[in-house]
Batch of 2 targets.
Target 1
Amino acid sequence: MVTGNDAEQVKLLFFGQLKERLQCASYNLAIKQPLSIKQLKSHLISLQPSWQAALNNDLLIAAVNQQIAQQQAIVKGGDEVAFFPPVTGG
Amino acid sequence: MVTGNDAEQVKLLFFGQLKERLQCASYNLAIKQPLSIKQLKSHLISLQPSWQAALNNDLLIAAVNQQIAQQQAIVKGGDEVAFFPPVTGG
Amino acid sequence: MSIEITISHDDFDIAVLHDALQIGNVQQGAVVTFTGLVREFSHGDNVVALELEHYPQMTEQLLLSIAEQAQNRWQLGRISIYHRIGYLPLGEQIVFVGVSSKHRQSAFDGAQFIMDYLKTQATFWKKEHFSHSSQWVEFKASDVQAQQKWAAD
Amino acid sequence: MSIEITISHDDFDIAVLHDALQIGNVQQGAVVTFTGLVREFSHGDNVVALELEHYPQMTEQLLLSIAEQAQNRWQLGRISIYHRIGYLPLGEQIVFVGVSSKHRQSAFDGAQFIMDYLKTQATFWKKEHFSHSSQWVEFKASDVQAQQKWAAD
């Protein structure tokens, strides 16, 4: 089990064309310690190598607990982290 | 009769506070020859001296046959001439 | 490409006017409307009603000309202008301007242009009624400035 | 001073939304609305439908924040934002933004500000469906510029 006592869950959400490319809307990621968005992305890619190109897109925006967040922002267990392309509503 | 064979009628219209001040909405003025708006105003004041103050208001706008006209514009028999204050619709 | 101009004592129905701008109109994705209402305050006194009069025929021609200028300048689709006249108590609708366009910026600009020109060029005059008095509305320098900014572009 | 935000699969009724902005609201004399519709053309191809998705809860928070900014900046009265999600065929209504204000200039500015921020900040994503294909809409630099002009004031 990766999700041992010392691992916590982060809920990842994907939207728009990113969701379609990953064929994934929601993903539970176990982390052992708080990580920056940047580190979290690398960790995710190590688990899902085929997602690399889609996730390493400079246009992608991240939000932590529904607040827009920079690459240095820290994510801890229990957080909700969303990745999405620039918005196109209206 | 002022309206002899050689006199023609101009239909004058007044709007807004001007109409209220003159207590007149429409007035038929006989003229013997084409006149500028300025001359027509003087002629009108000679017939209705109490209208002088209300008509000699630089803000008043004139229209000849429903087109905005300058003081030098020529009015002839059969024309419709309107005088009104700046518009305030909307 | 249609322009509808109405001047009437009767109230207007926003839903009907809005439908006329958008139904069957799949070329234009943006509709902007302005509605003017009789509001309570003016110069610190309580307005109970407005009275609107106009110069018949000349007003319609002026509104049509304003709408055509807007249509040409921003390639607008449909334009609707409805202006009421007569005695209009507090809360009543006075004026509606609606435009459709391909893009939102031109729809906003077109509607605002029409309102700014209507305010300064269309031959309407407005009187405010208070509880115990009434007075004709003076034209506002700010309205003239709002209209003139379109010429500077 | 009220703000109404709705995100829904269901269509909206302009008359109902408009009434909510103006009825019993004798302080504000100006109402400006924007309505966005699914229109036919995009990049030379025929759109048959749009598909809209959003980030639940985050979108509502963002729209509320945008509306509050507009309300504070222009002292707006009432604000209503309604955005649809799901599959929307040609001609369908997508979005409604309506504001009431004392003056027409602030009503126009407030409504346009909300649309410009909604377009660039609210977490909606749009996919265009053509007869035989579909594609996610790319963000537009012109939308970012439209939003940024409000910061320069």
Note: Chain B is about 25% helix and 30% strand.
Target 2
Amino acid sequence: MKKEIIISGFGGQGGLAIGKNLAEAGMAEGLNVTWAPSYGPEMRGGTANCSVVLSDKPVGSPVFAHPTELIALNEPSLAKFEAGVLPGGIVFVNSDVVTDKVQRPDLTAYYVPCSQIAEEVGNSKVSNMVMLGAYVAATGILKPETIEKMIEEMFAGPKAKFIPLNIEAFRRGMACVQ
Amino acid sequence: MKKEIIISGFGGQGGLAIGKNLAEAGMAEGLNVTWAPSYGPEMRGGTANCSVVLSDKPVGSPVFAHPTELIALNEPSLAKFEAGVLPGGIVFVNSDVVTDKVQRPDLTAYYVPCSQIAEEVGNSKVSNMVMLGAYVAATGILKPETIEKMIEEMFAGPKAKFIPLNIEAFRRGMACVQ
Amino acid sequence: MAIVYQKSAGLTDAELHYCPGCHHGIIHKLVAESLVELGLLDDAIGVCPVGCSVFAYNYFTCDMQEAAHGRAPAVATGIKRTHPNQAVFTYQGDGDLASIGAAEIVHAAMRGEKFTTIFVNNAIYGMTGGQMAPTTLIGQRATTCQSGRTVEQAGMPIRMAEMLSTLDGCVYAERVCVTDIANINKAKRAIKKAFEKQMNREGFTFIEVLSTCPTNWGMTPLKANQWLKENMAAYYPLGVIKDSSVEVK
Amino acid sequence: MAIVYQKSAGLTDAELHYCPGCHHGIIHKLVAESLVELGLLDDAIGVCPVGCSVFAYNYFTCDMQEAAHGRAPAVATGIKRTHPNQAVFTYQGDGDLASIGAAEIVHAAMRGEKFTTIFVNNAIYGMTGGQMAPTTLIGQRATTCQSGRTVEQAGMPIRMAEMLSTLDGCVYAERVCVTDIANINKAKRAIKKAFEKQMNREGFTFIEVLSTCPTNWGMTPLKANQWLKENMAAYYPLGVIKDSSVEVK
Amino acid sequence: MAKELWKGNEAIAEAAIRAGCDCFFGYPITPQSEVPEYMSVHLPEHGGVFVQAESEVAAINMVYGAAGAGMRAMTSSSSPGISLKQEGITYIAGAELPAVIVNCMRGGPGLGTIQPGQGDYFQATRGGGNGDYRTVVLSPSNVQETVDFMQEAFDIADQYRNPVMVVCDGLIGQMMEPIEWREIPKRNLPPKDWAANGRKGRDHHNVINSLYMDPEVCDAHNRHLDEKYAEIAKNEVRWEEVQCEDAEIVITAYGTPARIALTALDALRADGIKAGLFRPITLWPFPEKALHELAAKEHVKAFLDVEMSSSGQMIDDVRLAVEGQKPISYLGHAGGVMPTVEEMIESAKKALKEVQ
Amino acid sequence: MAKELWKGNEAIAEAAIRAGCDCFFGYPITPQSEVPEYMSVHLPEHGGVFVQAESEVAAINMVYGAAGAGMRAMTSSSSPGISLKQEGITYIAGAELPAVIVNCMRGGPGLGTIQPGQGDYFQATRGGGNGDYRTVVLSPSNVQETVDFMQEAFDIADQYRNPVMVVCDGLIGQMMEPIEWREIPKRNLPPKDWAANGRKGRDHHNVINSLYMDPEVCDAHNRHLDEKYAEIAKNEVRWEEVQCEDAEIVITAYGTPARIALTALDALRADGIKAGLFRPITLWPFPEKALHELAAKEHVKAFLDVEMSSSGQMIDDVRLAVEGQKPISYLGHAGGVMPTVEEMIESAKKALKEVQ
Amino acid sequence: MSAKVTFNSDRCKGCELCTTVCPKHIVIIDRETINRKGYHPATVSDMEQCIGCASCAKICPDSIITVEKF
Amino acid sequence: MSAKVTFNSDRCKGCELCTTVCPKHIVIIDRETINRKGYHPATVSDMEQCIGCASCAKICPDSIITVEKF
Ligand SMILES: Cc1ncc(C[n+]2csc(CCOP(=O)(O)OP(=O)(O)O)c2C)c(N)n1
Ligand SMILES: Cc1ncc(C[n+]2csc(CCOP(=O)(O)OP(=O)(O)O)c2C)c(N)n1
Ligand code: SF4
Ligand code: SF4
Ligand code: SF4
Ligand code: SF4
Ligand code: SF4
Ligand code: SF4
Ligand SMILES: [Mg+2]
Ligand SMILES: [Mg+2]
């Protein structure tokens, strides 16, 4: 079992954080995980992406040309990475930002209105949790409980008030693809 | 035929110049020659020396541990290099400065009162020419005419007035060992 | 219909890679316009630094050389000494010029090298992601002084224009900024004057431009503009620091 | 019979390798005496440069480190930051400090590193045989400016004490010489004061000592002494350049 | 021990702190800037000293000073910055000071690219500075190893009074991976009675120095260094062999290419090709003997050296070790392009075909 | 042509001027300071530019600027100074600029000694800077060759747009020897239409640069460099073989040890021992093929590598070329002590005895 | 209308600097539009009022503004 | 004699600096002697006049002068 995921968007959209959450959760479930960011000089408007591997075997290459899943948070990301997705792979699109559609017929596409849902839930900052929910639900690679536990740990102590919000966002994201 | 000469004295005593003169003259006679100075940080009172090779074959090493001749312009030089002179070699001592004598019985020693002769000739600056004369006379490796021609070239033009003085010093040096 | 203003012929058509509102872009065009207006463009050789303006060679239409980090003054010396009649300029950031390249700028100034330095002081290492620069203000946060720069740890920020002005070879040093039109106009006058003095072979000319880094300051461009005026200009006084013709206190 | 004066306990018994009359030897002993008199010898760590004083570690009886050419301020920073309560000093020549090491000294001063620099300015590269230094006077001959230094080729000589004094981290800068007893006494007072300020954690302290190089100046020691007083002291004014307690103009 | 997710560069910094690093002197450069950033916050919390130096040259000389005064001192940088440190490193080696230098390599030459590279192998293993000297070079190929190697690096440095480099490429510096904070057995280290940190009553003054004016003394010093290097080579050489027992094609690789090779190995084995990996962990001392012996094995038919370098640098060491016993082919890219699993598979197959 | 007696360093400077050197940027250091000193007087007489730089770092970057603007630019230094130039050299290689760098080597590591050494072989031939690049390295072993090689150095630099190093040791720099000012055939060199020296109506602006942010582009640039290096290796490799036709023991040496070996050769032959000398003249490209073929000859029984280095650096290249065909032994000293004729004779005899 | 201001809107980064220097306060950010770079571009709200002073153009770091006058 | 000046003459470099600072002008170079370093060493011509001010010792770069006083 091995998932190779690319998460890509504008710098500041939170793609790197989604990747970290996936890696953290994978680690919590005892998987071998890696997270590798693209990095470069400060160029706003550019695309920032990261590569995440979740695997039951030791991870060889932390970077790869052909992801099993793509999470595209903006249009340039979809344009850049769609072609490389492994046949039969899944593409998650932040449909609030991206109006383009996935072109390849051999891919499963989920259009997740992350920001909209986040605002519905009450805080635009939780849109990443929505996408995470969608990913977890669609791939089944991670247990929802793991993510929820992770959320609880992330917001331990004084920030505990954010837990329900995040869990709600996560669940709404899961619901999107079910 | 190969001569390997070490000329050594205080910095400023002109030992390096004697070496250069030997090399120039050797070159003029079609020999293969090299001149190699010792070098180091400025330390007055230290000893400066150079190594000269005159040879009818291409010169391999320009430096050597066992000179065929040693020209010692001060006491530390004699002390330092006498032991290394090739058995049967020659040691030229500037007897105006060095009161020590050559210890090894297998060496020929010439004690040349260079400064004294130079002053007799009329200029303390030509003491090097005295030593050169001694060397040429004792070794026979270079023709006296070569040196005299070299002196003429060295003092060509406005400095021509120094020619007789230098030639005189050179000849007096030759006379010392005859 | 006459064109009152358009992109300078001294700039290529390439899109600038700078962050929104970053002053590098404004400073670029003032340099480009100055070269064009003085008729130097076809003659000029520019030297870019390592810093956010590392790609400046993509933007200026004159010949350009990319220097190693901090070494633009040495590179420019190599160029100008062998091309004494041509206009040579360096474009350097504060990390590049005031930190790693401190020896090179001091010595170019001491020797009175006849090129013009455009020193873009944004009080931070922009390109590498916001580390402390020698010009970072006391209390200002950076990724290598996350609770703000302290005197104890890093000393007081360095005023390069003032320091270089102690050197006779530096004949002209002015500090400007580009936060508004009045200052932009002043900055351009200063840059042109520097090039004129260079072409007159007067000596080393130095224009320090206070500049924003909205991204690493963590501010909007407008907020950054404001912060510059209130904080940077207070510590780094604007104006002529040295002019060998008119001695200014 | 009481000893009025003898070789300082701060100096080893090794013979100094300096040329006859070279001031390095005098400056060494002033530093050694100061350390002894302030009770710092057993605590002190000195840093030697690359230059004629490269072997200073053979002469001082305190612990010593030999730095790479020009990097003594960086080496001293590494020592002092990790040993904040001990006395740390660097001893640097003008090639070492003002040329190759310009960035390091500027930044040590900017950061206000709490060590003392003894800067021996003899207007020449002594050790390597008399090349031009940044402090070589206009008209002075050196092996790399054999007809004398010119402004056009090498700029005006750099006044390090004045330049470093523009930096807030430099709390004390004085220029002295050791040509005669009055000046030797002044020099020693300055050196002691610098160490005291260091131990008070005031900041970076800098003593520039004008010094002779009879060998490479091609003069007798006495002639060199004279030349220093007449020429060097004229361009490099003696006295306190900066004292953070008493602000001097 | 619970696993924690750490970014390579931050793990390096934290591991150094845990290894007792007293002081860090550095200068920003991508892709290693997280090391000084982390140090600036956390080293002082542990009583350590952080200074952002004015340059890489200054940083390495600060390391020299602090190390000479007996501290566990460290710097880190990336390729062009490491080039600037060469004089300082040869001084540290010449003066026999312990120090740890991290090179988070990017592609070259010159300014090159900020993406991962391995073009500094020669510089690290042969010494880019002047004179005859060696730095011990540890090469982790995952984040756990970067963590494990930091204490080793400080210990080896102290034990032999020699600079130790930890070289990783930008990818290892930037990526996150789960790690454990394992207890690494501490070595029995000699006292630093040579340190120039103030006499404090000592009957002699200590001197830190790399100058040996007298040729004979300098030569003797070099011989002493040589003996030390021979001892290090004997004691400290490390490598890993993966599925080499029956391998017909052996991939030689370190750092990121080595971990990519693990994936290629699986694929090749799945294809019925007996592939193995020989991974030097100490690049100097290079595991020459082990590789020579492996090359002598009947079942080994060919080697494939894989590096993030245009035409290979470690390949020289591989050739020196293999000594013509078996053919060696090369796969590599410089400048941020990483060799892919697919390329490795293809090259391995080609290399095998050529010997058949 | 009359012979003239010249000091190595001054001959280097004069030869550079005659080769059309436009500008020299340098910093004093023993034992090469006569180069800048000579240049400061004589280069301006020929309309050239001399600047005493504030440091070796500045000097090499001045070379970069002048070379980038189309000039024949040069610098010289000695070992620690060359270490400081490493970043600059890799930039010059990366930006493909022609430049000539002289290293008048002294003993190391660190400050070491100012006496002659050869411990910078690795630095010169492998690149002490970051990334994959090569400098052409010419190694004269007498003053005549230093003179002959200067024009070649500038020409090779211009032809391939690559830095060229001339490495000699302090002895060759300091000694005097008779030389002739021979006419070296000039190469047909490409125009420097890439130079950033002002557009002057050109329809595009020229850029001098070693930055290739995009990994693919950087990789392609590296491949381009590699092809260039392959071409240089094909065209420019030089070596000398002395009495190798029947040699049983072959001494490999360059620079001063090579000329000392000539004396040893005579002595060995006089003793009835068939000794030869294989002298690489280009250290990079190393005459690998020629040496490999020589090693294959029946009559060659063993090699003796001799260097002014503690345990040898060129010996790696010798081993890479010989590839285990014949045993190689080593004789060397670092730090100013030169291998003597006597040592060479003894070592050669020992090496031969060991194979018998 | 005595003057015309043209924006190369695709390249606008929405930094708002131009909006701070117009003497007529007619340079505004068009919050309704997102350009291909993802920014809200600047525009002129009322070209009639423009006096062609070129201030907006002078400050634009990306040099995307052209000003013409009759 | 109220003071005594001793020279470690073997180490004297004959630089003459000490001769310039003696208030009594009694420090001189002994041109009759050459020490093992090859220099004419300094000496005191008339010890009686010495006031033990230590000036000669203070300036000596080689620190070879010791001054004692009753
Ligand atoms: C030798 C070397 N050291 C460090 C770097 C990394 N580096 C790139 S840009 C930069 C600093 C940029 O800051 P600044 O000069 O202020 O320019 P800005 O980006 O702020 O315009 C640094 C440290 C490098 N490229 N080379
Ligand atoms: C990196 C490096 N460059 C150059 C040198 C050669 N060098 C030794 S001392 C010196 C200059 C000495 O001059 P200064 O600092 O003025 O000291 P002085 O000898 O005059 O006391 C130089 C250039 C060196 N050792 N290392
Ligand atoms: S990081 Fe700062 S300096 Fe660099 S382009 Fe962005 S705003 Fe400008
Ligand atoms: S060369 Fe000059 S500085 Fe050096 S010891 Fe001699 S006199 Fe002193
Ligand atoms: S040209 Fe002047 S008036 Fe017109 S929009 Fe621009 S700033 Fe406003
Ligand atoms: S200044 Fe330029 S980039 Fe910024 S908002 Fe105005 S038009 Fe757009
Ligand atoms: S102690 Fe004073 S008085 Fe006595 S000799 Fe020395 S200088 Fe003269
Ligand atoms: S000062 Fe010292 S070295 Fe010089 S002459 Fe006097 S005693 Fe001798
Ligand atoms: Mg900046
Ligand atoms: Mg000096």
Note: The mean pLDDT of chain F is 97.
